[in-house]
Write a structure and sequence with these properties.
The protein is an alpha+beta fold. The protein contains three helices and five strands, in the order αααβββββ. A five-stranded mixed sheet has the order 1-4-5-3-2, with no helix packed on it. Strand 4 and strand 5 form a beta hairpin. Helix 1 packs antiparallel against helix 2 and helix 2 runs antiparallel to helix 3. It starts with a helix and ends with a strand. The relative contact order is 0.10.
Length: 142
C-alpha cells in the first residue's frame, strides 16, 4: 500500500485529534491544525521541506498565539465574593451574639452557619449583610 505524502499528514492530524479527545489538551488541536496545513501543502505539490516548515509555522504559531491570548486574558474573579456563584451574597441575616474573636453561630436558611465579621469595629448583635463565603463560613459586615 503506497500512501501519498498528504495521506500521512492527514493521518497524523487525525492521531493528534484523537489524542486531544483522550487527553483534553487544546494544544494538540492546534498542532493538528499544523498537520492539516502540511497536508494541504502536499496536495498543492510543495516539496517535503516546505511542507514541514509550513506545518511547523502553522501549528507552532497557533500554539504560541493561543498562549499569548491566554496570558493577556484577565484572571477570573475570585469565587468567594462573586454573587454569580454564591447567591447568598447580599442577603441579610441576624446575629444575636458575637464571640470575642469576631465569630458567631447563626441559623440561616434552615441550618446553623459559622459567621465571621469583616468590619474594623467590634460587632454588636443585629442585622448584617453577607459579603462573601469562606468555605462554609459566611463573611459579614454592616
Amino acid at each position: 500500500m503506497d500512501w501519498s505524502g498528504a495521506t500521512w499528514w492527514w493521518v497524523a492530524a487525525g492521531v493528534l485529534v484523537a489524542a486531544e479527545l483522550a487527553v483534553g489538551t487544546f494544544n494538540l488541536l492546534l498542532l493538528a491544525l499544523g498537520m492539516a496545513a502540511g497536508a494541504l501543502a502536499a496536495h498543492t505539490g510543495l516539496a517535503l521541506p516546505a511542507q514541514l516548515v509550513l506545518a511547523a509555522l502553522v501549528g507552532g504559531g497557533a500554539v504560541v498565539a493561543w498562549r499569548a491570548k491566554r496570558a493577556r486574558d484577565l484572571a477570573p474573579e475570585p469565587a468567594a465574593p462573586n454573587r454569580d456563584l454564591n447567591l447568598d451574597i447580599g442577603s441579610r441575616l441576624h446575629v444575636g451574639q458575637w464571640n470575642a474573636d469576631g465569630t458567631a453561630r447563626v441559623a440561616y436558611r434552615g441550618t446553623e452557619w459559622n459567621v465571621r465579621y469583616q468590619g474594623a469595629d467590634v460587632p454588636a448583635a443585629g442585622e448584617f449583610i453577607i459579603r462573601a463565603l469562606d468555605g462554609n463560613c459566611l463573611l459579614v459586615d454592616h
